[in-house]
Amino acid sequence: MRTAVTGLREPLERLYREFDYTTRVELDAIRFPLRYPGPRDREIVALLTACLAYGRVDLFGRALERVLAAMGSSPAAFVLAFEPRLEGGRFDGFVYRFNRARDITAFCVAAREVLGRWGTLEKAFLAGDPDPAGPITPALERFARRFLDADLRGVFPRGRPSRGYRHLFPLPSTGGPCKRLNLFLRWMVRREPPDFGLWPDVSPARLLIPVDTHVENMARAVGLTRLKSRTWRMAEEITERLAAIDATDPVKFDFALCHKRMSGECRDRRDLAVCAPCGLRVVCRHWRGRGARRA
Length: 295
Ligand code: SF4
What we know:
By secondary structure, the protein is mainly α. It has helices at residues 2-18, 21-25, 31-34, 39-52, 57-71, 75-80, 84-87, 101-118, 121-127, 137-148, 163-168, 179-189, 213-221, 232-243, 254-262, 272-275, 289-294, and strands spanning 95-96, 99-100.
């Protein structure tokens, strides 16, 4: 695998350098927090967006637009002043797959609690970070728990948050890839566009790649993972191999890898026309072996 990583450096660095970020950002979930110039608004919108970022962007985006419209020009101010009995009704009719209006109400209540205690999401994250030079896992676990363990009795009278609300905050300890929370961290921490670099006290070297189906396909195609299941371990493995290329910023390749597959520029199979201009062809499993010799 070491050989594969060595061979990957140039094609991956080129993909990262030459990718058309401007066009693809408009089709990515990051476009929602990007609308808000204020860091506190951007932070809270980024978290809400990432929490809902399961399924296609155009589908959850429609539902998210409705919530953002209800929050007005400053979502951070809206959340800080949120009173569920008065404002919870603003989300009436919200439906997106596992989630309903009360889950968004609960998000606002929990975010109000977190912001009320720590002031910003960044400070809430840092307060739960046991080792700023260590793995990101315990800090992310504690950050998600702040929302899961918030006092939500006013929203869920039986004291147990809904399945939909719990789905918003996956925990690394359950073994899943936690793509949405790792995506939120990427947006907040990475210093280079399209990411925001709003959390300067967290090193990009600690991030884990947000693994969704597109990143999984691409990672397998170019030999960044051989694991069969999309898990936290797979996120660690892919990130470890990317760190062999850029230890200071391993997750920088995420956006381009994800969008290359999502856009149809890669079909995860050997396709003479589609693959012809692909710089990853030299390391792609679909072009190795007998198939490659026939091409
Ligand atoms: S060579 Fe083809 S299948 Fe392989 S990564 Fe490139 S576009 Fe995808």
